[in-house]
Amino acid sequence: MIDGYPRNQDNINGFLEVFGDSYNIICTLYLSCEENTCIERIKFRSQTSGRIDDSEEIIKKRFNTFYNESFPIMDELRKLSKVVEVPSKDDKLNVFEEICAKIDPLLKN
After folding, report:
1. Where are the domains of the chain?
2. Which of 7, 39, 45, 59 is the most buried (most CB within 10 A)?
3. Cβ neighbours for 8, distance < 8 A, ≥ 6 positions apart
4. Where would I find the H helices in 66-91?
């Protein structure tokens, strides 16, 4: 599992250069969530995290980067593996259960 990777085409190219054909990607997990929900969650996290990058201005810049650089590589990721999308607006336990329901059968193969 690689959290948040690859984020752009350069990451994919670097991965393929380093690993060549010696990898077996079971799937790419895409946790989809509405931007407003994510912003509220990050702002809530900022109350205790001490992270200086949890301001609304920086959060919006991160979303801009995601939409412009990360999301467009989904087509490339589909060429490498199955993309499993799980809506993640629901509570953590329900999201976890849906992830397990979608990924467990892939792990058995």
Report:
1. 1-6+35-109
2. 59
3. 69, 70, 73
4. 74-80
